[in-house]
Amino acid sequence: MNYKTILEQYGQTQYDEYLHRIGDKLQLSETQKDSVSKSYEALAEYIENNSELLNDYEEIKVYSQGSYALSTVNRPLRTEKFDIDIVVEFPRTNASLGPQRFYNSLVKVFKGESRYREIVELKNRCVRINYASSNYYFDILPVVPTQGENIKLAPDKELKDWVRTSPKKYRDWFEIRCKNNLHFRATDMALEELPKDNLPFSLKPALKRSVQLIKRARDIYFRDDNKYSPSSIVLTTLFAMYYNGESSTYQNMKNTVDKINKQSQNVFTLNNPVDAKEEFTEKWKKDHKYYDSFFDFFEYMRDKLALLESTEGVHNKIKVLSDLFGESTTHQMLDSMSQWHNDTTYGVNQHGRLTTEEYVVPAKKNNFYGSKD
Fold first, then answer.
1. Exposed, middle or buried by CB within 10 Å (0-12, 13-18, 19+), for 20?
2. How many whole angstroms separate alpha carbon 67 and alpha carbon 287?
């Protein structure tokens, strides 16, 4: 039984190990995670214990949202930074208090603190804390709850009004979709601590793995001009909506890319799956280039994945993977795979994953140069 047959027997393809090794290189380092965690804890403690905010708004909740909350964050490309999205929830809603007051309250708090004063940037809906010496920044979104719903309202400076958002409800929906369940029950528990993304890439749910990989492919594709790059929330939502329980990362990516390409003749609107009143593609209506760039990217993904299957020889396949996920990341993956296969006795466990522990099916060494068993 050869290596390809072993993987296929357990619902995997010969490309899954490539993708999992690439995914390993996308994970944040332990040093990065520790730095983010310490910065988050300092921010959360400062906000929650700030006497000015507490006097005005009583209890305040601080929790994460976005890629970090979903465990789909990637290492940044080159010298770029990655963002950590934080929500600051003010529990008291009062119609006489406009959205600008909430926003200004948060700005004032950070502007009044010496350690944050020089690194505060004002955005349309959030306050950014941009650390000069770190490769990440925090986008802090102030929100207030609505009556009887797990929906929050955030200030929009350009609109001079509230806009709807549902960070916890969306997180719950995504986690349930990772289990391929169409039904979910929203919870409103506070997420006070920053989620710990400690699972190795290959042990994450297939949906999370695919989301990380499609986001990196997007970053590579749009690296020279990202003006019309599809947002992470659009990619994450579409991949979650189209997820059909595949255990293979490669098969999940391929199936989702194919499904999206079938919609290429349609101008679509993507709403928040947990709040139809929030639209994720609102700005696409104002500029059709967003649609064009989106479908150009997914046609490119379809063609590259087809080429990955059809091309002969490991070196040619590595070239395709380099085009998709970056040359540096792909060659790091190849080096780690070669070293691992040369030094390790390995097998495939009952979940179809390669393992160096007690295993079910022994797997032979592979030199990655196309020789047959």
1. buried
2. 26
Q: Cα 140 to chain center, whole Å?
A: 17
| Region 30-198: CATH code | 3.30.460.10
Contact 162, 95 (CB under 8 A): no
Tokens 């040093």 belong to residue: 31
Q: How far is it, in rounded angstroms, from Cα 138 to Cα 66?
A: 11
Closest CA to 103 of 40, 166, 23, 157: 157
Q: In this predicted structure, which of 80-94, 221-235, 314-328 has the lowest mean pLDDT?
A: 80-94
- Distance, in Å, from the CA atom of 56 to the CA atom of 359, rounded to the nearest integer, reads 59
Q: What is the DSSP letter of 215?
A: H
E strands, the chain, are 61-65, 82-89, 120-122, 127-130, 136-145, 152-156, 161-165, 271-272, 275-279, 347-348, 354-355, 361-362
Reply yes or no on whether the pLDDT at 1 is more than 80: no
Q: Lowest-confidence range among 62-76, 99-113, 157-171, 220-234?
A: 99-113
Cβ atoms of residues 221 and 46 within 8 Å: no
Closest CA to 352 of 14, 42, 22: 14
Contact 21, 249 (CB under 8 A): no
CA 210 to chain centre: 9
Residue extent(s) of CATH 3.30.460.10 domains in the chain: 30-198
Quick check: 281 pLDDT over 50?
yes
For residues 155 and 106, what is the distance between their CA atoms, to the nearest angstrom? 12
In angstroms, the Cα distances linking 143 to 55, 113, 133, 277 are 17, 21, 29, 17
